[in-house]
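One chain shown below:
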Amino acid sequence: MYIVTGAAGLIGSSMIWELNRHGISDILAVDHLGTGDKWKNLRALQFADYLEKEEFRRLVREERLPDHLDAVIHLGACSSTTEKDATYLIDNNFHYTREVAQYCIDRGVRFLYASSSATYGDGAKGYDDDVARLQELRPMNMYGYSKQLFDLFARRQGWLDRITGLKFTNVYGPNEQHKGEMRSVVSKAYEQITATGKLQLFRSHRPDYRDGEQQRDFLYVKDAVRMVKFLLEHPQGYGIFNIGSGKAETWNALARAIFAAMDRPLQLEYIDMPPHLRDRYQYYTCAEMARLRHLGYREPLFSLDEAVADYIRIYR
């Protein structure tokens, strides 16, 4: 049996979809569905059972998870980069991950967990997933720091030769509507363009970047989960790995892809970035992908235009 936490989320639901594509349906799906519409992301998926997060966490603490586990893919977390409740983030993103990891390590169960490219902070130390440099990184928000805490803890414990951390970059794709303001620009842009015919992007507040020329490593979720499955099955797929495209694209390029997918003329408006975001804003991200490629990952990635068109024309 496989366990996927965060099962109704963007990456979690896509992970189950990817497992289903390979004939795997003996899956325990774990999430906190609450009163929103996130449950809809589970409807097309095949899995054996569902548990709410708190019930799953209780079973972990009581050491009563199902026998014969193949792997736990721990994607459940608070992913809000603007969340300010540090106590909540420490418990949900650090302690929770530590409990599940310890359970798996004690039983020799394969464990993969979501870290984040937010751990790289402003990128001054680069975007290299070399664990020897973990201590040098300075996340710019509490979300990134909560992920960094577990990465550092796992290294101190000597766990990184038995578990796998996944440093996801800017992942976007189907099943992200529940994320509200934390949805991708692609998702929000589709609605904004449909309503107004134009798209607003943040103006640059640095002289070395023109408006809309800030860059991100955008990754389509279908590519993300293929990378995860590769690491899940690879005999040397342990440690911490960037999960990204390895290519920096501008917001302007993303906007052009969105308008093209919607068959609309390009119409952009640049607006000031809120002051509270300016000192925490990343102007450039690009994951170093050499370690994953060294293991033999050679699957072609969706281009930006292909991915945006697939997302908008099929799923939106």
